[in-house]
User: Fold this.
Amino acid sequence: MTHGTTKPPEPILLSAARISTFDGQRALTGASGFFFERDGRLYLVTSRHVLLDEPSRHFPDRIEIELHTDADNLAVSTGLSMLLYREGKSVWRDGIDSGGEIDVAVLEIDRTALPGQCVLQAYTPAHLPAAHDDIEVGAALLVVGFPLGFHDLLHHLPVVRQAVIASSYGLRFQGQGYFLTDARTHRGTSGAPVLMRDTTATAANQALPWKLLGVHSSRMDMASRDQALDEALGLNCAWYADILLTLTGPRPARD
Assistant:
C-alpha cells in the first residue's frame, strides 16, 4: 500500500473510545472504553476504577469521549462530555458478586446528544461467548485501547495489542470474576475490550466478527517480586464480559 492510499478502517477500531476524566475543568486521567448496545440503548463500558477509585482518591465528576463524525474523513471528530452524577447520585452502573466488587462500569449514552453523523461500532449480547464455546488457554486475543493515551492523533483511532488467555477461561481466577491474559499493557488501557476472533460469526455479527470475552482492568503482579532482580509478570486481569448482561438489564427495584 502506498502512502497516498486510504481505506476504511477495520470496524474493530471504531468500537473503542478514548476516555478523559475531569474534576470540573481539571483534567485527571486517560483510559479506554468501548460501545455496547442492547435493546436499542447504547452504553459506554469501561473499568469502574476509571470513574471512581477511592484508594487513589480519584473522584472525577465527568468524562469526555472522542467520536468520529465523518465516515469518509476520520480526521474529523468531536468530543462528547458526560456527567457522572445527577442530584448527587452516580449515573453509571456497576456490580458485585460473591467475590466482591467487579471492576466494570457502564454509562448509558444519550443518543440525542450524539452528533448527527456519528460513526461508531457497538458490541451486542450476540458477541458474548456461549456456554458451549470452546475457548482454550493460550487462545489468541486482541486488546483494543489507548495505552498511556497513545493513539493515531490524525485519525483518532486506538491501537491493538496481542494477548493470549493465561488462565482457564470459565474459571474464576482465585475466586474473582476475572481471567488472566498474557500481554504487554500500560496505564490507559483500563476498560479496553478483550476480544477473540469469531470464525463462525453469524450474519448479525459480520460487521464485528469477534467474541467479547472480557474487559481489561489492570496488570497483576506479586508483592514479593524483587523489582531489581525479577521482571514484572506481564499478566493482566480481564473481567468476564457476561457481567454486561446484568449491568445493562432492568434496574433492581431498590434503585
Summary: Residues 38 and 248 are 7 Å apart (CA to CA). The two ends are 54 Å apart (CA to CA). Residues 243-247 form the longest helix (5 residues). The chain has one domain: 11-247.
